[in-house]
Amino acid sequence: MVHAIRFEQKLPVDKDTLWTFVASPLNLRLITPEYMNFKVTSELKQAVMYPGMMITYKVSPLFNIPLNWCTEITHVEEGAYFVDEQRQGPYRIWHHEHHLKEISGGTLMTDILHYQLPLGPIGELAHALFVKKQLKNIFDFRYKKLEVILGR
Fold it and tell me: Which single residue of 4, 66, 93, 148 could bond 116 by disulfide (Cβ 3.0 to 4.6 Å)?
């Protein structure tokens, strides 16, 4: 089963400022919970994402077991949105859209995530027991961290 979640956040910065922050893969570690031991492992020739960019990293989302994860940036419209898709990692499907829209007083950032776990019924059980909650906690952490970094 493909699951979908949507998160929205209003930030008191202009769209260009927010884009500069989110368009750098190196900033992902700043908005990822420390317990996940997030580390970019690819040598990035460019600090700003572009279509076709492959980003590899290690992350320990569960029981401190390190996993290799590879993401491809598949779509980019500078200043407006980008899409990352998992090419290697724990999910069967991972399609994550990031949209920015200028609003009164700042920028609205919308994350739309479609994902599917492997292993059929076992994956669905894992989703019900902890994956859904863990994803919510990760996005809640990002929400709070972005407020610290960019303001309320």
Answer: 93
CB 53 within 8 A of CB 146: no
CATH number at residue 27: 3.30.530.20
- 123 CB-near residues (< 8 Å, 6+ apart): 92, 116, 117
Q: What number is the average pLDDT over the span 21-43?
A: 93
Dist CA 117 CA 119 (whole Å):
7
Asked whether 47 and 65 are in contact (CB, 8 A), the reply is no
Which of the four pLDDT bands, split at 50, 70 and 90, describes residue 61? confident
- Compute the distance between CA of residue 93 and CA of residue 53 in angstroms, rounded to an integer: 18
Count of the separate structural domains present in the chain: 1
Q: Write down the pTM of the prediction.
A: 0.93
Residues spanned by the domain of 140: 3-150
Nearest-angstrom CA–CA distance, 82 and 6: 15
Task: State how far the alpha carbon of 139 is from the alpha carbons of 37, 90, 113, 145, in Å.
Answer: 16, 18, 11, 10
